[in-house]
């Protein structure tokens, strides 16, 4: 990424994160608490936290980008579990939290002693966030939250969860608010769910049965949670795009190694024109998508990136990643279907990228809207 290459400190940090990721990654196992504390000591978990609360001093989003690229190169699941905490959920607490929320959660988050999650998706409301039904009702000095969430990254291991809940039943998107919820609160039940990919990343269902949340743990303005989400989801999409491109790079390298070595009809598989042209085409697309993502990172840092910019980056990077992985599977032949091979695992891990952080169809809708359609 150009932005990282042009920031020597970010590039150096990325190398440190890469070594850390190699040291702590265990296939099929979520990251343990000791590794989270190591991430805190490295400065990874404090990237979005002000220095006054123990966060990183002088770090820009270029550092986030370098870290995400390093993590996803080792494992997409590893990237998912860390980024949902330090890059996606934590900024809501920083930007929208009260002094009480800041004092309680930010210092341990920076140290890696606490893990964060973002709970938006429900069994009946995924891409259509305005349809969520989890409700938060005021009751004296607290809100009472009732409902359920699903497909929540870090859901069963998080200590603090940013929860979207309905506070005005008849107001649609304008009746949603955000809350910082203690994951150990009475009435909150969590259950880890099994997924076909990214098994090194925790995913869970959450059930809220009149969970009490202090009034001071409302994030931002009452009934304006949807607006707060729309303001911050573009960063999540750029972060996802960076991870997608890292996966695309790994998949391309695996595929190139395969077609240079494997023989078919007495010659390397990559020398067959159809294969060579298809790989070349995807490589050209990779360069174009990378240029757009680089531009988006610059705009994000300058606060000039539009919702449509982020949607284009997310859409194109996820499709590119999956196209390269699919071609890699094809060119690896029967060995690609063997459990445990790297191309197989990357292919399984990558499929979700066209669904989460905004499905392809939602990205297309946002782009069409930007075009006035």
Automatic annotation (TrEMBL):
GO cellular component: cytoplasm
Pfam families: Acyl-CoA_dh_1, Acyl-CoA_dh_M, Acyl-CoA_dh_N
PROSITE patterns per UniProt: ACYL_COA_DH_1
Domain Acyl-CoA dehydrogenase/oxidase C-terminal: 224-371
GO molecular function, one term: acyl-CoA dehydrogenase activity
Keyword Mitochondrion: no
Family per similarity comment: Belongs to the acyl-CoA dehydrogenase family.
Stated name of the protein: Unannotated protein
């Amino acid at each position: 990424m150009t932005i990282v290459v042009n920031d020597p400190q970010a590039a150096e940090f990325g190398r440190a994160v890469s070594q850390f990721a190699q040291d702590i990654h265990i296939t099929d196992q979520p990251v343990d608490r000791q590794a989270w504390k190591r991430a805190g000591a490295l400065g990874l978990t404090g990237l979005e936290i002000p220095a006054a609360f123990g966060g990183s001093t002088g770090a820009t989003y270029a550092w986030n980008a370098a870290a995400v690229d390093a993590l996803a190169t080792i494992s997409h699941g590893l990237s998912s579990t860390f980024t949902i905490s330090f890059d996606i959920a934590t900024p809501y607490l920083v930007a929208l939290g009260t002094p009480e929320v800041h004092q309680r959660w930010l210092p341990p988050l920076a140290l890696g002693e606490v893990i964060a999650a973002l709970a938006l998706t429900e069994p009946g409301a995924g891409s259509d966030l305005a349809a969520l039904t989890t409700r938060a009702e005021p009751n004296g000095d607290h809100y009472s939250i009732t409902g359920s969430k699903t497909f929540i990254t870090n859901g069963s291991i998080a200590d603090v969860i940013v929860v979207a809940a309905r506070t005005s039943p008849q107001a649609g998107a304008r009746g949603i608010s955000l809350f910082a919820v203690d994951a150990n609160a009475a009435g909150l039940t969590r259950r880890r769910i099994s997924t076909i990919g990214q098994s090194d990343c925790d995913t869970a269902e959450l059930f809220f049965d009149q969970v009490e949340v202090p009034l001071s743990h409302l994030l931002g303005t009452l009934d304006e949670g949807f607006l707060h989400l729309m303001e911050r989801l573009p960063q999540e999409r750029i972060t996802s795009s960076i991870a997608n491109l890292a996966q695309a790079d790994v998949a391309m390298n695996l595929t190139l190694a395969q077609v240079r070595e494997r023989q078919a009809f007495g010659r390397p598989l990559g020398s067959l024109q159809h294969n060579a042209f298809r790989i070349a085409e995807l490589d050209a697309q990779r360069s174009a998508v990378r240029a757009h993502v680089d531009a988006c990172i610059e705009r994000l840092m300058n606060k000039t990136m539009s919702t449509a910019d982020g949607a284009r980056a997310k859409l194109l990077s996820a499709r590119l990643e999956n196209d390269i992985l699919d071609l890699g599977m094809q060119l690896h032949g029967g060995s690609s279907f063997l459990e445990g091979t790297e191309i197989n695992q990357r292919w399984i891990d990558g499929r979700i990228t066209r669904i989460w952080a905004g499905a392809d169809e939602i990205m297309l809708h946002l782009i069409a809207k930007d075009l006035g359609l």
